[in-house]
Design brief:
The chain has 11 helices and 7 strands. The protein is an alpha/beta fold. A 5-stranded parallel sheet has the order 2-1-3-4-5, with helices on both faces. Strands 6-7 form a two-stranded antiparallel sheet. Helix 3 packs parallel to helix 4 and helix 7 packs across helix 9. The longest helix has 26 residues. It is elongated. The termini are far apart.
Length: 266
Amino acid sequence: MARIRVLVVDDHRVFAESLAAALAAEPDVDVAAAGSGPAALRCLERGAAEGRRFDVLLVDAELGAGPAGSVARAVPDDAEGVVDGISLVAGVRRVQPAVRTVVLAEKDDPHRAALALQAGASGWVAKDCSLQRLLAVVRGVLRDETHLPPALLTGVLRELTAARKHRTDSERLVEALTPREREVLRCMVAGLGRKAVAERLFLSPHTVRTHMQNVLGKLGVHSTLAAVALARRAGVGPAQLGEVPLSGLSGAGLSGDVVERGGQLA
């Protein structure tokens, strides 16, 4: 019988202890627990290093919302910073995409449930559901099923449709940018300031300022933060800081293409 490794992530000790004990009574389930997002990520990393990867994470929807308590069999939590439940789902999907995550919630919330699904969660269940229901969800997500309470389906679909519309509108605006402006936008998403963008793209700060102003104007926003938020909705990722853009290499004389240098065509 293949064993299922489950990690419970909840900062409410009594609930986490009770859930871990109930799951551990199942003959094919191994359980560990973590009292915070950083502790959960460390637990995942250690499990992978030891060749004992977790299969499913059960994550508190309100993780980090209250005072963290120590959890039985929890990973020692000495990491700084707080990771909320939705952020943890996204982080796990990024570092260990094979792990399935299920969000445990005290109340139905279509908006947060939609955010969880967009972040990579495979399920959203009530904390007060039966153990049999929770086990069915755990086994189901391992078969690549997605589980939602029936009462949430309509609301979640509405939220996802609205989010898709916003994303489509954002994508349309980003597509109107020139290739250079999209490079500048990716640098903005990466958190680079004007001087850093200028150095990266081999442009003058003045030229970068002009590009940034053009980006804000074309996106119809009035601040860098708003531009970054719109870019993320459109699926624009940050510039990889270890990479040098091809346009930058051209500007450095490694290509015969026509490029910008200090705002002038060369």
